[in-house]
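Q:
Got a chain?
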Amino acid sequence: MKSFALLSLVLLGSCAGVQTGQTVSYQDNIKGTYEAAEKAFAAKLYEDAHKHFEEVRSKYPYSKYAVLSDLRLGDLYFAQEKWLEAADAYDFYLRFHPRHEQNAYAWFQIAKAYYNAIPENYFFLPSNYVKDQTATAEALTALDKYLAQYPEDKSVEEARKMRLQLRSQLAARDLHVGQFYLKRNKVKGAAARFEYVSKNFADTPEGEKAQAALEQIIQEDT
């Protein structure tokens, strides 16, 4: 009986050793794949980096490296100036990891991705304020969420500057329409636009211009 008990202990010990070895190997595989992705990213081998990040996500979905891979895919697209893909990747990360420590960073990155997606101004093309404002609105939404949830974050000052610039761009559109109406003697339409801008964008230079234009209309009407 003693021999049987001793043999059982040896076998159990061997199995435990195998399981421990497998656990170490499993963790090493996850870490190694993730580190390979980071090295490829640093070397700007974006296809290789993408492949390794995706491998971590698919093979090891419950590891901390899978969470980081979700976030880094956003960074990967951002580095390639694929702004909308980057915003989508960061949004995916936030939806599936709503309490992760890097969420402030992700929200600000979404804002920057949409900010970068706004069409550039060229002298031979219409100004930004007369173009599609979808990216501007998305950037502002992300900035508002970021500023509301993370008021002490390190990038708050930069975010506020971006927000003011984007709001100025939206205000410029309506200010431009008001000026267009005024030139064609459509005074009521112009006044309505100026009033809207002065009330809703008072924190912008355009809001001040709209208020001045509105006061001029009122003065001339009296």
In short: The chain has nine helices and no strands. Residues 31 and 65 are 7 Å apart (CA to CA).
